[in-house]
Amino acid sequence: MKRKIVFPPVETASEDGLVAVGGDLEIDTLLEAYHQGIFPWPISTYPLNVDMPHTWFSPNPRGLLQFKDLHVSRSFIKFLKKTPYHVTFNRAFKDVINQCAQMVRKDQPGTWITPDIIDAYTNLFHAGYAYSVEVWDQERLVGGLYGVIMGEFVSGESMFMLEDNASKQGFYTLLVHLKDKGINWVDTQMVTPVVQQFGGKYVPRPVFLKLLQKTNWTRKRSDIF
Question: What's the pTM?
Fold first, then answer.
């Protein structure tokens, strides 16, 4: 029997976007959350307080990148012309998410990508609802990102780089690929410096939810990657 997954309305979220506390990270829970514009984001960082309950967010405003706003700087174009790296999709999901979890980030004592998050999104990947982008220097993984893909909804969850511009090349390659496949925007949740450089912006949550309502959910990952 199919479970009924219920989240509070996103309009009830706190000022920082917190919608709900508790629940699990099963595949059907995650799919329902993303359908409603909600995503899991642990409040505490690993390895601190790993037994804290799951927390679910729908921030207002919401970060996204619409491809009509895509901007590529001249310096990055020059980099692309001489880059030694090559990019693949869905070749090393587990390696990418583990590298994202290990990245040292400014003003963060740990990572929100806990072992539970790693397991949950790995399961989501094997079920066909998550993807990875890998950036290679020959056979060495030097950058990448992962996210959720449900029909034509695509999110960017986290990225990492071990060499300059590696994650940027992966993100840019993803954006161009998705645009070629008829997808018009990517949910970035937040607007990081990298996202902003490519034209990402914050929009009011109601604007984001309207985009969700217009989303084609029927396409499979194999149709896009």
Answer: 0.93
